[in-house]
Design brief:
Blueprint (H helix, E strand, L loop, with lengths): L4 H13 L3 H9 L16 H21 L8 H11 L13 H19 L6 H12 L8 H11 L25 E3 L17 E7 L4 H17 L6 E8 L12 H10 L6 E4 L7 H6 L6 E5 L5 E5 L4 H21 L1
Parallel strand pairs: 2-3, 3-4
Antiparallel strand pairs: 1-4, 2-5, 5-6
Length: 333
């Protein structure tokens, strides 16, 4: 899941992942099943669909308003950009050159994608109404009890689409082409994928400002790295794969990379790949789809896992399997 990269990290997450746990929980645990024609659910009550739609917009608006530097200077153009993407307004002359219109278009595109993939009953006008109220920091039009009741009523209609598998699975891991490293092994001026042949390699890709990286990705990395800290057959490398940032005040910087390594007490090699002006070469070569992104490479340099989410237990199971693969073949000779 972008011409307005300066907002994408937070806004895309809010637009698509902005649902509360009770609206997503069941589908997150178990893939959604296609209902049979006889059991296909009818449209949820109109009031619930309206409140659900309003809530999604309101939560986006409040999130934007709460973050320094993200409030649009031209609020009307921003909201028009959202509504154009939701097919409830048409652009005006000069919109294509207006940065706030572009930012609104990015948010609107994310919400429209959510509607297509996960909640076909989403009501665009109610989304826009909620978004406008959230940006203005007004009180919500509905009480918390009304919103929670609507979320419960609509939760069975919200689907979690299965992401397509990475096209890189089963392929040889490409070279990295990285110049700036932090915490390299002694005697090394740089590293590349060829340095890890014969090892199981865990690669973690992040951006400094990525909320999911800090909430899920880094804690998982800490647990897995702690489990294998004395196992020389398993190695870890971390990349800051920059594909978005604030042009006037960059956040995904090499200096912040070093601070994050210290914050999480991680001693494996870290590398900077990309900037606001030049999208990460590692991201392009490995076809990662954002951050947090984890890859696990086998002893022969073949990509065996490449996706957003990975639990510590899931990572350990795969690592143990990959560690044993060549050992089993050697024992058979």
């Amino acid at each position: 899941m972008r011409s307005t990269r300066l907002l994408l990290a937070s806004l895309a997450v809010v637009a698509v992942a902005g649902l509360p746990a009770d609206a997503e929980g069941a589908d997150a645990r178990e893939p959604a099943k296609s209902p049979s024609p006889e059991s296909k659910p009818s449209m949820p009550p109109k009031d619930d669909a309206e409140k659900f739609s309003y809530y999604l917009g309101y939560r986006n608006g409040r999130s934007i308003a709460a973050k320094p530097g993200q409030m649009p200077a031209d609020g009307d153009a921003f909201l028009r950009g959202v509504m154009v993407k939701l097919a409830i307004e048409k652009p005006e002359a000069g919109d294509k050159d207006n940065d706030d219109f572009k930012k609104g278009s990015a948010v609107g595109a994310q919400i429209a994608a959510f509607a297509r993939q996960r909640f076909p009953y989403l009501q665009g006008r109610k989304v826009a109404e909620g978004l406008e109220a959230g940006l203005a920091k007004h009180d919500a039009a509905y009480s918390n009890q009304e919103i929670q009741a609507a979320l419960r009523a609509c939760s069975k209609f919200v689907k979690t689409p299965r992401p397509a598998p990475s096209p890189m699975l089963g392929k040889q891991a490409p070279k990295w082409e990285v110049g700036r490293w932090h915490q390299l092994p002694e005697g090394k001026a740089s590293l590349d994928i060829s340095d890890f042949r014969g090892k199981v390699l865990y690669i973690y890709c992040f951006q400094s400002w990525c909320p999911g990286c800090h909430k899920q990705g880094f804690p998982t990395l800490q647990q897995v790295a702690g489990k294998y800290q004395d196992d020389d057959s398993v190695k870890f490398v971390v990349f800051q794969t920059v594909f978005e940032d604030r042009k006037d005040s960059p956040v995904n910087t090499f200096e912040n990379l070093k601070k994050i390594a210290a914050r999480y007490k991680l001693t494996m090699p870290f590398a900077q790949s990309g900037s606001h002006e030049d999208k990460s070469k590692v991201m392009r070569a490995y076809k990662t789809r954002g951050t947090p992104w984890t890859m696990i490479i086998d002893k022969k340099g073949v990509i065996r896992y490449s996706s957003f989410r990975l639990t510590p237990d899931g990572a350990a199971r795969l690592i143990e399997k990959l560690k044993a693969e060549n050992d089993d073949k050697a024992a058979a000779k």
